[in-house]
Structures are given as C-alpha cells and as structure tokens.
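User: I've been trying to design a sequence by hand for this structure and keep getting stuck. Would you show me what you'd pick, starting by listing the structure so we're on the same page?

Assistant: Good idea, let's start from the same input. This is the structure you sent:
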C-alpha cells in the first residue's frame, strides 16, 4: 500500500496525461509507462464504487510509488458511495480522484453511471460536492461532448457550468459524442466524429477552469496545436499501442533535462519489476503475459518489431515464466 505520506510533494501540471482505459491501464501498464515518462499523469482503469466498498480494496487500489502522479478514476452515481470511495483513494495515496462521465458501455449504463450521467448534471454536481467534502486532493470529471443525438455545444457548456459551480475546476473532454445504444465501446471511440472546437470554446467561456482534451491525438505536432488553446492533452490508444511516442514528453513539455531513455533502456528497466512480480505473485498464478502484453508496441517503427511482438505473444515462450524473455525479444530488434 502506498502511504499518503509518500506522495510526490510537488505535482507536475496535467499538461500531458494517459487516459484511463479498461483492461489496459492496470498497474503493470502504468509501471511500464512510467519508465518512458516521469511527469505525464497516469490514470487507473475505471474502478466502480461497488468494487471498492464490497470487494478487495487492495487489489483495486494498490500501486507503486514510481507511478506518481497518478489519478484514480471512479465509476458511480451515488454521492455517499463516491464520497467513501474517494476517501479510500486519498488514503491509499492517489493524487487525484476522477469521475467517469464518459464511458458509453451498456454494462456501465446499467449501473447508471458513465456517459449517461451527462443527462443528469445536478446529480453529477452532488457527486462532485460529496467527494470534494471528503478529500483534500483534486476531484476532476471526464466527459463527452454530448450523448446520442444531443450534440450541441450549449448542452456540454451547461453541464460543465453546473459541475463547476459544485467546485470542480478540471474537466477532461473526450471530444466525441457518446452513442448509448447501437454502438460498442470500441465503435464509440471511432465512429462519432471528433469536435475539438467544442473543447476550445469551453476554455474561452470558462477561462478559469482547467480544460484538457482527449480523443484521436497521436503526435507531438497535434499536441502542440491543442496546447495553443487548452491546458492539457490526454492520449489514449496511441500511448498504449505506440508508447515510445511519450519518450520526449518530459523534455518537450516539462523542461526535464534528464536524458531520454532508449527503448532498450526502458525494457531493461522493467526487468527487475517483472521478476519481482513473478516471484511475489507466483502463488496467485500471475502469468508473464499479464505484464508483457502492455509492452508489445514498444518497438513500433523499428526493424524487427514484428519478431519482438511475436516472441512476447508466443504462448509456449510465455509459459516458461522467464523474465529473460524480454531480453531475448529485444535481441530480435537489435539484429
């Protein structure tokens, strides 16, 4: 467990962050990303209030000190439950609590949270106020620009305005509509068109708020363009599938003079962690693939990247449970 006493004393800005992504941004993924970028904010997968209040808290909240700055994303719509869950997050040492108002999956809708909450701004405001009353760390909201056929700027503006009145000062705008029926979560990340202008206008209308944009952003050139209008940029799938895109973030966006790690140095830095995890959780049946699956995109763009991916995806090789497999895969790229 990470103690609040061990938190990063001075947190970097949210200029850059990696989006919360279900089944992807677990603690193994975040450990890997942290060896590429020291200052970019990392977010957990969404954790529901039910899972925290009635499940294994340690399994959901445990993380390593290296992961700071780190935000806990919560899914829920009951102010009292969110208040208790936010308090747990603060006790475990998280730097921010984020409320999910953007996930469009039917499972999330059945729980009456996620993107469908955009239709209930007063309830979201109550949830935010309850969490802010319970914790001293930042409470933020991640949302879409609209839901279903409701895609007017005024709808999003009024949603943000009411939540801001409840004390939230940071909004992460996934710049697509959420289609709650008929599209899968994957299709919801691709089919509704992007509209970054809504996020830009939001910043113009609420200059005192911190506005961060998310959705379809892949390159530093695109990041630079958005930062001319907004306070921050959140990367999603690109950070996962092509993680080395983040290698220059510290120097470019945080003025960090530390040398940029090569891809091979990143891989070598992960070796002790991989071995420790395999040893620590051997009795629980932790598989090597649980860690290596997050690393498959590290060599993207290099000769031998395909062989690297194949070796780290080979079930027979992975069954050996040898951390050294990472070095053997790396040799394929060097060749």
């Amino acid at each position: 467990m990470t103690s609040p006493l061990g938190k990063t004393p001075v947190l970097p800005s949210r200029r850059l962050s990696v989006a919360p992504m279900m089944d992807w941004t677990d603690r193994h993924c975040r450990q890997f990303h942290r060896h590429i970028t020291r200052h970019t904010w990392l977010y957990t997968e969404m954790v529901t209030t039910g899972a925290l209040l009635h499940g294994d808290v340690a399994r959901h909240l445990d993380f390593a000190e290296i992961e700071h700055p780190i935000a806990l994303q919560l899914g829920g719509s009951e102010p009292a439950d969110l208040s208790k869950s936010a308090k747990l997050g603060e006790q475990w040492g998280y730097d921010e609590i984020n409320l999910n108002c953007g996930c469009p999956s039917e499972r999330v809708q059945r729980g009456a949270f996620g993107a469908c909450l955009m239709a209930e701004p007063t309830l979201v405001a109550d949830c935010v106020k309850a969490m802010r009353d319970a914790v001293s760390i930042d409470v933020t909201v991640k949302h879409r620009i609209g839901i279903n056929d409701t895609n007017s700027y005024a709808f999003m503006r009024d949603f943000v305005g009411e939540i801001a009145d409840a004390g939230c000062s940071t909004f992460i705008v996934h710049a697509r509509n959420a289609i709650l029926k008929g599209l899968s979560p994957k299709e919801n990340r691709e089919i509704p068109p992007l509209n970054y202008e809504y996020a830009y206008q939001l910043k113009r209308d609420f200059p005192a708020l911190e506005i961060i944009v998310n959705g379809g952003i892949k390159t530093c050139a695109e990041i630079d363009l958005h930062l001319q209008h907004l306070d921050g940029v959140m990367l999603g799938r690109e950070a996962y599938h092509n993680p080395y895109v983040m290698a220059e973030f510290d120097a470019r966006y945080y003025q960090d003079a530390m040398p940029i790690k090569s891809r091979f140095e990143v891989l070598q830095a992960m070796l002790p962690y991989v071995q420790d995890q395999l040893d620590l959780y051997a009795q629980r049946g932790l598989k090597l693939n649980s860690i290596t699956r997050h690393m498959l995109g590290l060599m993207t763009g290099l000769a031998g990247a395909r062989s690297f991916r194949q070796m780290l995806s080979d079930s027979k090789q992975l069954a050996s449970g040898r951390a050294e497999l990472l070095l053997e895969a790396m040799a394929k790229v060097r060749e």
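That's my pick for every position. To get oriented when you compare it with your attempt: Residues 4-254 form a domain with the TIM Barrel fold (CATH 3.20.20.70). The mean pLDDT is 93.
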